[in-house]
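Annotated sample (chain length 74).
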Amino acid sequence: MPDRTCHCYGCGRNQGVDPSELPCFALKGWYILSHLEGPEDIKRYGFCSITCLQRWVNEHAPSVPEIFLTIDEF
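Output written by the structure step:
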């Protein structure tokens, strides 16, 4: 029975990691995001697919405005 699990923050899927298995093999194909929130404050998020990662980024990261103000020199 898996001793540890990795949770996908996009869809909620849980992937078990057997204690005898290296996490890099058990989580092959997963994306792990490290988010620096402050000095020595690192949050790690796991995603089972690029689609789940993209969904999380779209919901949590500020977006770039579609229209930019430009100033031209004359």
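Annotation: The two ends are 71 Å apart (CA to CA).
Annotation: The longest strand covers residues 31-38.
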